[in-house]
Every structure is written in structure tokens, then in C-alpha cells.
């Protein structure tokens, strides 16, 4: 009888050890197994599913801001931001160095300028610090005439061409190559005064 109990215990321990030895699957979508409710006291991930979609419902994940390459460049930086508008005196090694170099490149247009004009472009660099294609316009202030938009886009292109190629270290060049960079240009000069 003791022998039977011992065999049973060893068998139970070996199955538990074998179960622990199997690789555990990590759910890439945290809390996806729990539907959201206003009455829940625990976290959950809200989702949007369509009855027309085949397969499992995948929640919409709102990624936090700031984890991509976005930059705002003002024509007249504030006193607190003046240090960010100084070009580094060495090869660009960090994202901060890249952003400082891009800020120093900007020279706003003098003709057809408009106070409060905003324009966003998106582009990518290659490893050598050159552009992969021309910057693509993604946003312009609404209600602005076409010639003003063209003037600002030409100023953006001319400013970038004057600074290129940027001198990246090999590490930064490899990390940035092909990654999209979005820059929002804001003309905050007081033009009427």
C-alpha cells in the first residue's frame, strides 16, 4: 500500500513538474480575456470588433504619445527653448542631437508669410544622413491660399536641402534609416508689427 501511495505521489509530482517545464504562452494583449464593463474594479482593454471580421477580436491599443519621431519647430523659439535650437558641434549621436540639428536648419519664408501658419511634413533618412525621397506634406493650416502653402513647403524643402547630408554616427544612422520622422513647423512670428 505504501508503495502505491509513493508511486502515486511521484507520478503527481512529475506531472506538475512537466506542466511547469512547458513554455508558457504570454498573451500579447493584456486583459484581453476580460470584457470591459463600467462596473468592473479591475483593468481591462477596450476593444472594437466587427461582426464582419473573421477570427478573434483584437483590442484597439492606444499607444502613449512620444514614442515616435515627432518634432515641433517654431520660427521664434521661447527663451526656455533657445538651448534646443543650437546645432551640436559633433556628429549626431542621439535623437536630441538630430532634433537640434533639424531645428537649426529651419528658415521661415519672408514673402507670402502668414502669422500662425502651421505645416507638417513626413520623411525618412538613409544611413548616410540624406533624405529618402522628398518630404511629404501631411498637414497645412486650413483656409490658407495655395501660394502660401507652396511658399512654406518650398521653404521647408530648401531648409532641409541646405543642411543635408547630416553627419550621423554609425549607431544613429543604422537606427534611423528608413524610420519616418514627422515635423510640425509653426510660424509664430509677429508679422504685422
Note down, in words, how this protein is organized.
The protein has 193 residues and is α+β, with helices and mostly antiparallel strands. It is 29% helix and 12% strand. The protein is built from four helices and four strands; from the N terminus they run H-E-H-E-E-H-H-E. The chain has a four-stranded mixed sheet with strand order 1-4-2-3, with helices on one face.
Form type: elongated
Distinct helical segment count: 4
| Relative helix content | 25-40%
Broad structural category: alpha+beta
Radius of gyration from the alpha-carbon trace, in angstroms: 27 Å
List the strand order in the largest sheet. 1-4-2-3
Average pLDDT figure:
79
N- to C-terminal separation?
101 Å
Largest sheet: 4 strands, mixed
SSE sequence, one letter per element: HEHEEHHE
pLDDT < 50 stretches? 22-33, 61-66
Beta-strand content bin: 5-15%
Keywords:
alpha+beta, about 190 residues, 4 strands
Explain briefly what this protein structure is.
Helices cover 29% and strands 12% of the residues. It has helices spanning 2-21, 95-105, 146-163, 170-176, and strands spanning 70-74, 118-124, 136-140, 180-186. It has a four-stranded mixed sheet with strand order 1-4-2-3, with helices on one face.
Amino acid at each position: 500500500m505504501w508503495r502505491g501511495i509513493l508511486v502515486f505521489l511521484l507520478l503527481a509530482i512529475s506531472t506538475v513538474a512537466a506542466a511547469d517545464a512547458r513554455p508558457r504562452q504570454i498573451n500579447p494583449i493584456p486583459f484581453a480575456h476580460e470584457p470591459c464593463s463600467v462596473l468592473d474594479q479591475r483593468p481591462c482593454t477596450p476593444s472594437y470588433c466587427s461582426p464582419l471580421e473573421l477570427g478573434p477580436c483584437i483590442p484597439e491599443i492606444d499607444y502613449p504619445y512620444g514614442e515616435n519621431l515627432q518634432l515641433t519647430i517654431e520660427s521664434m523659439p521661447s527663451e526656455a527653448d533657445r538651448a534646443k535650437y543650437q546645432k551640436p558641434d559633433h556628429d549626431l549621436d542621439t535623437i536630441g542631437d538630430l532634433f537640434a540639428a533639424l531645428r537649426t536648419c529651419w528658415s521661415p519664408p519672408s514673402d507670402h508669410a502668414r502669422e500662425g501658419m502651421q505645416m507638417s511634413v513626413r520623411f525618412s533618412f538613409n544611413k548616410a544622413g540624406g533624405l529618402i525621397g522628398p518630404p511629404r506634406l501631411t498637414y497645412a493650416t486650413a483656409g490658407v491660399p495655395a501660394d502660401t502653402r507652396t511658399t512654406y513647403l518650398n521653404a521647408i524643402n530648401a531648409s532641409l536641402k541646405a543642411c543635408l547630408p547630416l553627419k550621423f554616427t554609425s549607431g544613429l544612422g543604422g537606427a534611423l534609416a528608413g524610420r519616418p520622422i514627422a515635423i510640425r513647423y509653426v510660424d509664430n512670428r509677429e508679422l504685422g508689427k
